[in-house]
C-alpha cells in the first residue's frame, strides 16, 4: 500500500504545480492600459438602494442632487464620456411605431408626466414627455427637475447617430424573444465598425434570439453569466474557456472574482482571446442587486494596476480616480 502512495502523491504534486503555473499571472507581461470604465445609467441622479425591488420608483427616493443630469439622456451620455467613461449603459424599449425608446422604466408613471406601459406608446408621444417630472428628494415636497426634462427622451437611433464612434452597453428590459429579433434588425442598420462597439444584455429569451441572429455581438443574460462563471470555476484551471464564456459580457463581483482561475491578468487575457469583455462590479451579497465600483473604498478592492473593465454608478467620482497614471490610480 505504501508503494501506491508515492506515485499518487507525485501525481497530485504535478497536478498542483500545473494548476499553479497555468493560472498564475506572475509570468505574464503586465499590460499598461488603464481600466475600461462602464458608466451604468450614465451620469444620473442617485437614490436610496435599501430594499430595492424591480418595481421600486427610484425617482421618489432620489438623494439630494449634486448635478442636473438625468439618466438615459443625450446630455447625461455626453457628460459620462467627458468624465472618463469608455462605455455608457442605456436602457431600451420597443415603441408602437417600430423604434426603440431609450428609457429605464417599464412604465412612465414614476419618472415622467405620462402614464402607462412605455412600449405601448409611439416615439413621437414619448418625446413630448418630461423625463424629470417625478424626481423628488424630500418625499414630494419639491420636484427640482420638473419642467426641465421635456423632450429629452431619445431613440436608440438618435444615440447611435449622435455618438457614432462611442461604445454602448444596451439593456433589453423584457424577456420577450421577439424583442431580440427587433433589436437585431435595428442594429443591422449600424455600420460594421459601429456594430463592433455595441454590447447587449437582458432577459434570457431575447438574448438567445439576438445571439442566433448576430453571433459575433457581445451579449449577456443572467443565464449566460451563470453558465460561464460556474463552468469556468469548475474547469477553467485547465486553461480551457467554456463556450458560455465566448462572445459575451462577464460581470465579476469583486468578492467572487478571486475564485476565477487566473484572476486577474491571465483570466482577462483568456476572456479577451475568446471575444469577451470583463467588468468588475461591486460585491455580490446574495440578493438580486449588485452595486457598482462606486466609492474610493471599492476602488481599493481592485487588484493593483487592474486593466479590465470597471462598472460604476458614479462615473463622475470613479472616472477621475481610475484615469490617473498607472501605479497611482488607486485611492489612498
Estimated share of beta-strand residues: 5-15%
- What share of residues is helical? 25-40%
Count structural domains: 1
CATH superfamily: Phosphatidylinositol (PI) phosphodiesterase
The computed structural class is alpha/beta
InterPro entries: GP_PDE_dom, PLC-like_Pdiesterase_TIM-brl
Protein name: Glycerophosphodiester phosphodiesterase family protein
Keywords: Hydrolase
Organism: Bradyrhizobium septentrionale
Fold topology:
Elements (H helix, E strand, L loop, with lengths): L1 H22 L12 E4 L34 H9 L4 E8 L5 E3 L20 H5 L28 H7 L4 E6 L4 H11 L4 H4 L2 E5 L1 H10 L4 E4 H14 L13 E5 L11 H9 L3 E5 L14 H5 L8 E4 L2 H8 L10
Parallel strand pairs: 1-2, 1-9, 2-4, 4-5, 5-6, 7-8, 8-9
Antiparallel strand pairs: 2-3
Briefly say what this structure is.
Its EC number is 3.1.4.-. The chain has 332 residues and is of the alpha/beta class.
What does this structure look like?
It is an enzyme of class 3 (hydrolase). Its EC number is 3.1.4.-. Keywords: Hydrolase. With 332 residues, the protein is an alpha/beta fold. The chain has one domain (33-322): TIM Barrel (Alpha-Beta Barrel). The protein is 31% helix and 13% strand. It is built from eleven helices and nine strands. The chain has helices at residues 2-23, 74-82, 123-127, 156-162, 177-187, 192-195, 204-213, 222-235, 265-273, 296-300, 315-322; strands at 36-39, 87-94, 100-102, 167-172, 198-202, 218-221, 249-253, 277-281, 309-312. Strands 1, 2, 3, 4, 5, 6, 7, 8 and 9 form a nine-stranded mixed β-sheet that branches. Helix 5 (177-187) packs parallel to helix 7. The longest helix has 22 residues, at 2-23. Residues 325-332 have low confidence and may be disordered.
Amino acid at each position: 500500500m505504501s508503494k501506491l502512495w508515492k506515485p499518487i502523491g507525485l501525481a497530485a504534486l504535478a497536478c498542483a504545480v500545473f494548476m499553479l503555473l497555468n493560472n498564475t499571472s506572475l509570468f505574464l507581461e503586465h499590460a499598461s492600459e488603464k481600466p475600461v470604465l462602464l458608466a451604468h445609467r450614465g451620469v444620473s441622479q442617485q437614490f436610496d438602494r435599501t430594499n430595492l425591488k424591480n418595481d421600486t420608483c427610484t425617482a421618489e427616493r432620489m438623494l439630494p442632487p449634486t448635478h442636473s443630469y438625468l439618466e438615459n439622456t443625450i446630455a447625461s451620455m455626453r457628460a459620462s464620456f467627458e468624465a472618463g467613461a469608455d462605455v455608457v449603459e442605456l436602457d431600451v424599449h420597443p415603441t408602437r411605431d417600430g423604434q426603440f425608446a431609450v428609457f429605464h422604466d417599464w412604465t412612465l408613471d414614476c419618472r415622467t408626466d405620462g402614464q402607462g406601459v412605455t412600449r405601448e406608446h409611439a416615439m413621437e408621444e414619448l418625446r413630448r414627455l418630461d423625463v424629470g417630472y417625478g424626481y423628488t428628494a424630500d418625499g414630494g415636497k419639491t420636484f427640482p427637475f420638473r419642467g426641465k426634462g421635456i423632450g429629452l427622451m431619445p431613440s436608440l437611433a438618435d444615440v447611435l447617430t449622435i455618438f457614432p464612434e462611442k461604445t454602448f452597453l444596451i439593456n433589453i428590459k423584457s424577456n420577450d424573444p421577439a424583442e431580440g429579433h427587433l433589436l437585431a434588425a435595428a442594429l443591422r442598420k449600424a455600420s460594421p465598425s459601429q456594430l463592433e462597439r455595441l454590447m447587449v444584455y437582458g432577459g434570457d429569451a431575447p438574448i438567445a434570439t439576438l445571439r442566433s441572429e448576430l453571433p459575433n455581438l457581445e451579449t449577456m443574460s443572467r443565464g449566460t453569466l451563470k453558465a460561464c462563471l460556474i463552468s469556468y470555476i469548475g474547469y477553467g484551471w485547465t486553461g480551457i474557456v467554456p463556450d458560455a464564456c465566448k462572445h459575451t459580457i462577464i460581470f465579476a463581483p469583486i468578492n467572487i472574482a478571486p475564485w476565477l482561475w487566473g484572476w486577474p491578468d491571465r483570466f482577462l487575457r483568456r476572456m479577451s482571446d475568446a471575444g469577451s469583455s470583463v467588468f468588475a462590479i461591486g460585491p455580490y451579497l446574495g440578493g438580486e442587486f449588485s452595486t457598482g465600483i462606486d466609492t474610493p473604498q471599492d476602488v481599493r478592492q481592485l487588484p493593483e494596476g487592474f486593466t479590465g473593465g470597471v462598472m460604476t454608478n458614479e462615473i463622475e467620482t470613479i472616472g477621475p480616480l481610475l484615469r490617473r497614471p498607472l501605479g497611482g490610480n488607486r485611492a489612498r
